[in-house]
């Protein structure tokens, strides 16, 4: 029982590290998926819907990062930051829940791990958005 719990903790850490690198893109990804499904339902076909979704996700990400960088109002910047952080936190929660569903038998501990993972991923999305120097790294 203890080795399985320790393995679960290590896997949660590894998945949170992966989610940290992907957290900023949760909102544009969800927007792209939504636009892809809408385009496919309207008869665009698989390739056309994929291209529309890709363009929509890139455009949404670029627009929101541009707004965050240029707006001076701290309340509007907070709204944009929360638009990035909330989907990232939900994705982090779901990621940890998927990992720990079978490994941790206690519902209380599973929810604690999931909550901590969601908070970590949400805060990582906020920190990546607050430090735009990662946009210029090569």
Q: Categorize the overall geometry.
A: flat
Overall average pLDDT: 82
Q: What is the first-to-last residue Cα distance?
A: 44 Å
Structural class: mainly alpha
DSSP E strands, number: 0
Fraction of residues in helix: over 70%
User: Can you count the helices?
Assistant: 5
Low-pLDDT ranges: none
Rounded to an integer in angstroms, the radius of gyration calculated over CA atoms is 18 Å
Spell out the helices and strands N to C: HHHHH
The main pleated sheet reads as: none
What is the beta-strand fraction? Answer: under 5%
Pick out its properties.
5 helices; 138 residues; mainly alpha; flat
Structure description:
By secondary structure, this protein is mainly alpha-helical. Helix content is 83%, strand content 0%. The protein has 5 helices and no strands. The protein has helices at residues 2-22, 26-41, 45-70, 74-100, 107-130. Helix 1 (2-22) packs antiparallel against helix 4. The longest helix is centred in the middle third of the chain and has 27 residues, at 74-100. It is flat, with a radius of gyration of 18 Å.
């Amino acid at each position: 029982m203890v080795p399985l719990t320790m393995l679960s903790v290590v896997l949660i850490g590894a998945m949170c590290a992966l989610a940290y690198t992907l957290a900023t893109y949760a909102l544009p990804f969800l927007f792209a998926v939504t636009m892809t499904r809408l385009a496919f339902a309207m008869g665009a076909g698989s390739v056309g819907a994929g291209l529309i979704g890709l363009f929509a996700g890139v455009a949404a990400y670029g627009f929101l990062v541009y707004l965050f960088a240029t707006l001076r109002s701290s309340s509007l910047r907070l709204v944009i930051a929360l638009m990035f952080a909330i989907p990232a936190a939900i994705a982090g929660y779901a990621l940890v829940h998927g990992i720990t569903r079978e490994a941790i038998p206690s519902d209380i501990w599973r929810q604690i791990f999931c909550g901590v993972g969601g908070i970590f991923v949400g805060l990582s999305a906020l920190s990546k958005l607050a430090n735009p120097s990662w946009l210029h790294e090569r």
